[in-house]
Write a structure and sequence with these properties.
alpha+beta, globular
Length: 491
């Protein structure tokens, strides 16, 4: 058996072990880690896969130089060049979307120290993710497949795998508040369902496929991982900073602009294809290692297969949108009367009494009431909202008992107040939390106007029961009053 074929078989067997170990460890880690269950499972698989790759490289006695990680005088220059190229890619696509009216420029933060913190946080995340992913996809996987087949076949397969794994799991099954190994296996088994019946997924898959080709071409161009690591890091840094300058996104010119993902519209796909094509063109005439294996035909078949699926399943940004309407399985606004309200202020507790379409708190002014405002009209949003005022040094919570099971939770919210945007007055920040039982499901700080929407994969308290306890908590992080309007429903 050829050594490279043996490595592939060892990796396949080792990956099955990684999946099994991750499935066992995830429920235990979930009991004390403050992360969602599927995220813990994904991170375990990633760490295990990287460790497996390092072990196989040591068994094969591969050098860091062949993998493109040899540190030399050109390493810093290649990384810096790649970082600028990656950042430029994000800026270019964003500017195209902005020109099409899809991106909305708005910057509220003026604190210099805050921007410095954001810069280093984005840079650190970019370098970490870029290094880990490039080490595996371009360093280990690409070179292994290149030795097994040939360069062209490994280019296609590596880029295809890179694109697909970013959507695992896209359609996650519902798990209980005390997940088990069975829940881990159910999530692992949901990978195939992420692509069945979801035609919208193929546009971002195509974009990431082109981005994977671009990174592979960069590696072949320099025989160094530092250039693709730099490009990858620059793109992640650009995406994180992009949200600070263009926080809002419109669906105008959806065919051209795509979505906030940047790479699923004609603008992003064209830019990525152009840069990948330029790098690929520079490789013309270069000698590449060849193999006697029929990798050329196999790689061509993979490309034809991907392109055929992409044509047969057009993404929604290209197809005509059809609004079949929403069926509210459970609306929190409509069931406000069945909830329990509570305010805590300076160690004083104020239970709410439901009367006349509102919760009233004895000892607090009427402005502290929680009510259903059926006159509130918000463009393209549900008309029925909950008016949730929050006072200074107060915690306010709404608890719904007996909430039925739904596949997912959609939550819309806005921070409302008496600020004047023309005078550049900032809304007070507000801390919003969503709890299921004793498990915190979501937490965010709101400090900018405009509706925000969050879709959450529902974590049930008990898998076999049909009801659960749901709590919304809000607290103003300032000395004055502010208001929270929210609308949530299960679907």
């Amino acid at each position: 058996m050829r050594p490279i074929t043996k490595t592939v078989l060892q990796f396949a067997a080792g990956f099955l072990v990684v999946l099994a170990v991750s499935a066992v460890l995830a429920p235990w880690l979930y009991t004390f880690l403050p992360f969602k269950f599927d995220r813990i499972l994904r991170r375990l698989i990633m760490i295990g896969t990287i460790a497996l790759s390092l072990w196989l490289l040591r068994v094969r006695r591969e050098s860091l130089g062949r993998m493109g990680l040899g540190w030399g005088p050109s390493a810093k220059r290649l990384f810096g060049t790649g970082f600028l190229v990656g950042t430029f890619l994000v800026v270019l696509i964003t500017l195209v979307q902005w020109g099409l009216g899809a991106r909305i420029w708005r910057v509220h933060e003026t604190d210099g120290w805050h921007w410095i913190g954001l810069f280093f946080k984005g840079f650190g995340a970019g370098v970490l993710i870029g290094t880990v992913e490039e080490f595996f996809f371009r360093g280990f996987l690409f070179l292994t497949l290149k030795d097994l087949w040939n360069t062209k076949g490994s280019l296609v397969v590596t880029s295809l795998i890179y694109a697909l794994v970013h959507f695992f799991p896209k359609q996650k099954p519902v798990v209980g508040a005390e997940p088990t190994v069975v829940d881990s296996l159910r999530i692992l088994g949901s990978f195939g369902s992420s692509f069945r019946g979801h035609p919208e997924i193929w546009a971002p898959v195509a974009g990431l496929f082109l981005f994977g080709l671009l990174l592979s071409f960069a590696f072949l161009r320099t025989r160094s991982l530092f250039l693709p690591i730099g490009i990858h890091s620059g793109c992640i840094f650009g995406l994180k900073m992009n949200r600070r300058f263009f926080p809002d996104f419109s669906e105008k010119m959806g065919f051209l602009s795509g979505t906030k993902n940047l790479y699923d519209g004609m603008a992003g796909l064209t830019v990525l294809a152009l840069f990948a094509g330029i790098l690929g063109w520079t490789l013309r005439g270069r000698s590449v290692e060849k193999s006697n294996r029929p990798g050329k035909k196999w790689g061509t078949a993979c490309f034809v297969f991907l392109f055929s699926i992409f044509l047969l399943c057009p993404p929604p940004v290209w197809a005509k949108k059809q609004d079949a309407g929403k069926k509210f399985v459970y609306s929190f606004a409509e069931n406000l009367g069945t909830a329990e309200a509570l305010r805590v202020s300076k160690e004083q507790m104020f239970p709410g009494v439901w009367k006349d379409e509102r919760f009233h708190f004895e000892g607090l002014p009427d402005s502290a009431d929680i009510l259903v405002d059926r006159k509130a009209l918000v463009e393209r949003k549900p008309e029925t909202v909950v008016w949730f005022p929050v006072g200074p040094e107060q915690d306010a919570s709404l608890t719904y008992t007996g909430v039925p099971i739904g596949r997912r939770l959609r939550f819309l919210f806005i921070l409302s107040g008496d600020w004047d945007l023309t005078k550049k007055e900032k809304p007070l920040p507000l801390l919003l939390e969503i709890w299921i039982g004793k498990k915190k499901l979501f937490e965010t700080q709101i400090s900018t106007p405009g509706w925000k929407e969050k879709t959450l994969d529902l974590t049930l308290p008990y898998l076999l029961q049909r009801r659960f306890r749901f709590t919304v908590k809000a607290r103003t992080l300032g000395p004055e009053w502010d208001n929270l309007i929210f609308f949530g429903y299960l679907e």
